[in-house]
Write a structure and sequence with these properties.
Elements lengths: L1 E6 L29 E6 L4 E5 L5 H7 L7 E3 L5 H4 L6 H7 L3 E5 L1 H10 L19 E5 L6 E3 L2 E9 L4 E7 L2 E4 L7 H7 L4 E5 L12 H11 L3 E5 L7 H7 L4 E3 L5 E3 L1
Parallel strand pairs: 3-4, 4-5, 5-6, 10-11, 11-12, 12-13
Antiparallel strand pairs: 1-2, 1-14, 2-3, 7-8, 8-9, 9-10
Bound molecules: zinc ion.
Zinc ion (ZN) binds next to loops.
C-alpha cells in the first residue's frame, strides 16, 4: 500500500492569503501546504482511494499524476474538505464511469445540496460528459465497508462543533479535524503502523488538536510512525522536526509512505 500526502495544510493553506507565512520559513518547500487530502493506492488490488476533495484538488491530481479514483471517502462536510467535488470530473472523463463517494448522512446531504448536478446520470452514448458524475454511499461509524475489495473501518471523532469520521485501512489510520478521541476510536487505531493525524497548531484550539494533544495520543495509539497534517502557519517544518520525538514528524505535500 502506498499513501500519498496530497495536502497537509489547514483550512486556508500555507501561506495564507490574509496572513502570509506566519512562523513558517518560506524558503523551505515543505512549508507550502495545500488543503488536507491523501490518496491511498492498494497496489495488490490496484485500487485507488482519495480521502477528501478540497479546493486544491485539480493541482493535487496533476502534481501526483493521479488518473484513477475508485472511491472518495469524506471526513466531514467543511468546505476545505469538499469544495473540489467538481474537479473529479476529469477522473470521470478518464474512466467513463461514475465515482462512488462515501460519507456520513450529513456530509452526503451537504454535497448533494451543493452539487446536485453531480448525481444526475448522463447517457454517454447520446451526450458528452459535461458534468462530474458521483454515486452516493452513506456510511456509519464503526461499520466496515469496502471499496473494490479494500476494507475500511470508519470511526467517530470530535471536531468541536461537529463529529467527523476517521478511517482505518489495513495498518494505516487517517484522522483529521479532530480535537478529542474516545476510547472506542482509539481501539480502532490500535496497532496501526502509520497514523496521519490533524495537528493545527502549537497552542490549544477549540476544534483541532494541538501538538501536546498529539504527543499524548501517540503514547496510547503507539503507531510506529505518526505524521502531522492540517497544519497552520504556526507550524514550521524544521522547527517541528527538531522538537518532536523520532516517531512523530510533520507531513509535507508530495510525501509518499509505503506500508
Ligand atoms: Zn473541519
Amino acid at each position: 500500500m502506498e499513501i500519498m500526502v496530497l495536502g497537509c495544510g489547514a483550512a486556508a493553506g500555507v501561506p495564507m492569503v490574509s496572513r502570509g507565512w506566519g512562523s513558517c520559513n518560506p524558503s523551505n518547500f515543505k512549508n507550502r501546504r495545500l488543503r488536507s487530502s491523501v490518496y491511498i493506492l492498494d497496489k495488490e488490488k490496484d485500487v485507488g482511494i482519495l480521502i477528501d476533495s478540497g479546493p486544491d484538488l485539480r493541482e493535487q491530481l496533476l502534481s501526483s499524476k493521479i488518473r484513477k479514483i475508485d472511491g472518495v471517502l469524506y471526513t466531514h462536510l467543511h468546505a476545505d474538505h469538499t469544495d473540489g467535488v467538481n474537479e473529479l470530473r476529469e477522473i470521470n472523463r478518464l474512466t467513463n464511469e461514475s465515482i462512488p463517494i462515501y460519507g456520513d448522512k450529513v456530509t452526503i446531504e451537504s454535497i448533494y445540496n451543493r452539487f446536485g448536478y453531480a448525481f444526475k446520470e448522463i447517457d454517454l452514448k447520446k451526450e458528452p460528459l459535461y458534468h462530474v458524475i458521483l454515486k452516493a454511499n452513506i456510511i456509519k461509524e464503526y461499520k466496515f465497508f469496502s471499496v473494490k475489495g479494500v476494507e475500511i473501518k470508519p470511526f467517530l471523532q470530535n471536531h468541536g462543533f461537529m463529529n467527523t469520521l476517521g478511517f482505518r485501512i489495513g495498518d494505516f489510520g487517517y484522522s483529521t479535524d479532530v480535537v478529542s478521541l474516545d476510547s472506542k476510536a482509539k481501539e480502532v487505531l490500535k496497532d496501526i503502523k502509520v497514523w496521519i493525524v490533524g495537528c493545527l497548531s502549537l497552542k490549544m484550539h477549540p476544534t483541532h488538536a494541538c501538538l501536546e494533544q498529539v504527543i499524548e495520543w501517540s503514547k496510547e495509539i503507539k503507531a510506529e510512525k505518526i505524521y502531522l497534517t492540517h497544519m497552520s502557519i504556526g507550524m514550521d517544518y524544521d522547527y517541528l522536526c527538531n522538537i518532536l520525538p523520532n516517531n512523530i514528524c510533520p507531513a509535507y505535500d508530495g510525501l509518499k509512505i509505503e506500508i
